[in-house]
UniProtKB/TrEMBL annotation:
Taxonomic placement: Bacteria, Bacillati, Actinomycetota, Actinomycetes, Propionibacteriales
Name of protein: DUF485 domain-containing protein
Transmembrane regions listed in the UniProt entry: 43-65, 77-99
Keywords (A to Z) from UniProt: Membrane, Transmembrane, Transmembrane helix
Length: 120
């Protein structure tokens, strides 16, 4: 008498790695990719909102406070100096913050995809 399991004809479950899930565009791989995209979108929207609220509010500030528009430095109106010179370090800082956030999201994603990998 030969005894066999009734599940011998059942397909074996193949365990796939996260990179395989992403490459094959499975539902789990899509979830991983959406999480990366969502985190980078959140960083971009945060930086864009900060930019709009800071630089976009300057014309309103100039209209609300006439003393700012009347103030001059070496004969140059203050709004020109603010918009032509002082804004750029803030833009640089916002760009730096965005790059740091995006790289952190990518590092976290890479660690999730390949847990033992060391980028150095």
């Amino acid at each position: 008498m030969r005894v066999t399991s009734p599940l011998t004809s059942a397909p074996t479950r193949v365990r796939r790695s996260v990179p395989q899930e992403i490459d094959e565009s499975t539902a789990i791989g899509e979830i991983y990719m959406q999480s990366l995209i969502r985190s980078q979108l959140r960083a971009a929207l945060t930086v864009a909102l900060t930019l709009v609220l800071s630089v976009g509010a300057l014309p309103l500030t100039f209209m609300a406070f006439d003393t700012v528009t009347e103030f001059r430095v070496l004969g140059v109106p203050a709004p020109w100096l603010i918009l032509g010179v002082a804004v750029y370090p803030g833009l640089f800082a916002l760009g730096w913050v965005y790059i740091r956030q995006a790289e952190k999201a990518e590092r976290d994603f890479a660690e999730l995809v390949q847990p033992g990998r060391d980028d150095g």
